[in-house]
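Input sequence (298 aa), recorded before submission:
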Amino acid sequence: AKKDVVKMIEIKISQGAKPAHGGMLPGDKISAEIAEIRGIPMGKDCLSPANHHTFSTPVGLLKFVEKLRTLSGDKPIGFKLCIGIKSEFMGICKAMLDTQILPDFITVDGAEGGTGAAPLIFTNRIGMPGDEAVAFVHNCLVGCNLREHIRIIASGKVASGFDIARKLAIGADLVNIARGFMFTIGCIQALHCNTNKCPTGVTSNDPGRYQAIDIKEKSHRVHNFHKNTIDALLELVGAMGCSSPQELHPELIQYRLDGIRSATLKELYHFIEPGHFINGNIAPFYREDWNKSDAESF
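Predicted structure, token format:
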């Protein structure tokens, strides 16, 4: 029997670099190994559509979460998305309340997320910025009394120790880092990810290109980046008077607003009390979107 290597399952709804946009895996990047794993023919472009065929409503998404959990033997199941229309995510929250089906985690990708395989207009203009999105998702779950049951993973241009601290302070439980690690193995953001002609071999399966990556050398670079980034995070945590990253909170971080005034993240992102959305007296900042949201329709 094959070793059980799948630890958790993430349903990808959208990503920060190109939310609401599908993807294309060119035929010349499909090796025999990729064809076997994905069940697709070699030499033919593989289109990943922008939407899922399995579900089309918030309730449908959660029923799919439940199905995957059952089929996988109760592995953690979650979904990844870049926030766009606020009421649509609130609809998912209403569906959680209606069905009592909860994901184990939600990965919140900021509009800063990147890939050279995305249309530039989408990368630059579509999606909610990461900090605002993480705080929004955190607040929605808090407002529905669901936060303690669901982990939030923050993603999108997270690279430094401060990036991690900021995301944890506004509601994330953990973070994904991709860009920083890609830099350590040679990515220069040439934006040729989809062409199979990445000049440093990072996103190519052409042996003439990827053999330029010295695994032994690059593994040390990856290790050093990870260690030094975590060390920097812990230094910041200590400097802010905390003994653990879990103690970070939005009042500890201030942003310059207009060159004169500054405000804490708590002031910027409208943090609310548990049960706010189900107690009936919803703050004006959230009221219109909450009233428009629907568990049965995006």
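Checked by second reader. DSSP finds eleven helices and nine strands in the chain.
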